[in-house]
Amino acid sequence: MSLAAVALVACNPNTDVDDKPEWYYTGGKLGTTTNLTSMTFRQPTPATENAGLGTMFAQGDQIAEKPFVTNDEGRLHGLGPVYVRASCQHCHPNYSHGTSVPEGRYDAANVGNGTLLVVINPATQGYVPWLAGMPQLFGAAPFKAPLDPDQITVSWKNATDEHGNKFADGETYELRYPEVTMPNTAVYVYNQGYRDPDGLLESQGYEVKLENTIGVYGSGLLDAIPDQDIIDQYAKEAADGKLKNGLNPAFWDGGFQTSGYYKNDPQWGPKRFTYALTRGPIMDAAGANAIWNITNVTRSDRRYHYLDLNGTIYAEYASKDPEVQKASGKSEEELYNYLLSKELPAEMSDDEFTQVMIWHRGLAVPAARNVDDKQVLKGKELFTQIGCDYCHRPSWTTGPDEIRDPNNFQGFTAAMPKYPNQKIWPYTDMVQHKLHMENDIRTGWCRTTPLWGRGLHRKATGDAYEARMHDTRARNVIEAIMWHGYSSESDAYWPTQQFYKLNKEDRDAVVAFINAI
Q1: Neighbours of 371 (CB within 10 A)
Q2: CA angle 304, 95, 260 (to 5 degrees)
Q3: pLDDT of 192-211, one tens digit each?
Q4: Distance, CA of 249 to CA of 443 (rounded, Å)
Q5: Closest by alpha carbon to 116, among 359, 442, 449?
Q6: Would the pTM count as exceeding 0.90?
Q7: Is the bond preceding 345 in cis, omega lying within 30 degrees of 0?
Q8: What are the tens digits of pLDDT across the range 32-44?
Q9: Judging by DSSP bridges, how do beta strands 153-159 and 82-83 pair with one another?
Q10: Is 72 helix (H, G, I), strand (E, B) or coil?
Q11: Hey, is 145 helix, strand or coil?
Q12: Which parts of the chain have pLDDT scores under 70?
């Protein structure tokens, strides 16, 4: 283990501060770190250390931090043949959210640019078949990138709400949203002669959106919330009639639906991860998926490549590319069979994947800050009074935390850190809602993002802004709140208007509280 890894584990002063209120322990006593330095999101939970998993955690951290390479040797080998990013750190700087997206060229190679491209059919809101759901932007020689990021640009547009972006006392705020330009010449298979049967690619009738990564810390704690408690939350929200848009019928249609967008076995219960609620439990969730499909590094349970939604389009056109054939010294048939093989050698060992999952499930949540500050306490009270706590439900209590693995991966779940019977404070209802914003998220449905730790994003990453909302459109808390009420059709319109009516002192108190949790 490297000196850096040793220092990472050692620098975790998780002291028991008995005079603090219970909401200070955002992840409960077993899941909270009191290390609030720039390394705060990288700390192991007390449960991880108590279980003697500190070394395994540090080894997993090294895999998550360092870039994979394209050669066939070394610990982090196997990147490619095409990939989205080379490491977890690229998308999750210091394991926080991705950083704000600047105007201009979409710089995919920049460490910290965790905002991924989402290319969709606007009529169906589904992903296009000629790219992966998370489109790859790089190729490992001799293969070429499915998309050329140098041709993709981001521009920021201004929006004005019904208040003219001004509070009654004269304080102003700004609202902005991104627009992405991607010509069809940026698409590799188009340049190789592929034409979309729907005509979207040829006519450039597709849409491109941005989706920022969320912080990976605290995922194990969300995984420990009992299924039934999440289902009960859906039932409560369905019954009280407070949501203008109701609930997503993919998950609630007069009763709870367990299939959602991904047809996982119903025994695995409600989805709880990603904006679209596509994943859960954590052993088959975003992190377990990303360490494979972001890097295309194979492992024993996924001995195949992640190429495109259709499954064969990239393989067909890459294998026919004369330059790829010449550089590889392989025939069209050999290239095609390699790209589509489901029996490739495992490039990540079972032990390494276990270490990654111990790290992923073992990341702590930072303790709340300034819990005795009068302004923060006033903001906490107002947060509830104006109704923010309806969607941003403050607390949950974990269950026995019986870890489940839909992939049944070598029975490694026994090695994971566990968080039984902890009161945690993520500030999310684990349900999707609609805000009806300009250039909104795909489908309009978005899981309530946990607020815990978000106030430390800039400290952890050095970002110029707070990078809030799904596409980093909100540069600070005020912008994030006012986007919630941009449309009268938003599920959060009423609490946003209550916030608007507050005087500046009270608004500042709400902001201070949100930044403290």
Answers
A1: 18
A2: 55
A3: 999 999 999 999 999 999 99
A4: 12
A5: 442
A6: yes
A7: no
A8: 999 999 999 999 9
A9: unpaired
A10: coil
A11: coil
A12: 1-17, 258-267, 410-413
